[in-house]
Amino acid sequence: MTRAFFYCGLSALAMLAPAAAEATRAEDARVEWLLRIGEASERYDAFATRVVADRERAVETRDARQNARLDDPTLRKGDIIVTQTGLLMFEGSDKIAPDISDFAPIGEARAALGA
User: Fold this and answer.
1) Rounded to whole angstroms, how far apart are CA atoms 106 and 73?
2) Where is pLDDT greater, at 5 or 36?
3) Model confidence over 69-87: pLDDT tens digits?
4) DSSP state letters, the chain
5) CA-CA distance, 79 to 64, in Å (whole number)?
6) Cβ neighbours around 98 below 10 Å, total
7) Whole-angstrom distance, CA of residue 103 vs CA of residue 70
8) What is the CA radius of gyration of the chain?
9) What is the pTM of this model?
10) Nearest-CA neighbor of 75 among 48, 96, 58, 59?
């Protein structure tokens, strides 16, 4: 009788072994998936950091370029500069450093010149 129980036990283990192996494979796949998610998250964070830094640098250089156009000592009445909002014509100024109020959008400036 003891042998019968022993063989029944072995049979039950043999039946459960594939299920246990499948559960182990499923857990291994889940762990691998979580690792891939973590790696992808790190890559995204690095990418987002670069994008933000590039954007901030672009804004700083754009502002510097805009100011450089206004500080140009060679500006003469009728000179045209390109801005993010469009083309502006310098209307002249007695100021040492002209500001944006010394410029007019091209359509308005041409009308004032009678063109």
Assistant:
1) 21
2) 36
3) 677 778 888 988 887 778 8
4) -HHHHHHHHHHHHHHHHHHHHHHHHHHHHHHHHHHHHHHHHHHHHHHHHHHHHHHHHHHHHHHHHHHHHHT-TT--TT-EEEETTEEEEE---SSSS--GGGEEEHHHHHHHHT-
5) 19
6) 19
7) 9
8) 37
9) 0.38
10) 96
Beta partners for residue 82, in sequence order:
87
Tokens of 57: 């640098």
User: In this structure, what token pair is assigned to residue 38?
Assistant: 């973590």
* CA angle 28–34–40, rounded 5-degree value: 140
What tokens does 27 get?
């857990």
Q: What is the pLDDT of residues 31-61, one digit of tens each?
A: 899 999 999 999 888 888 888 887 777 666 6
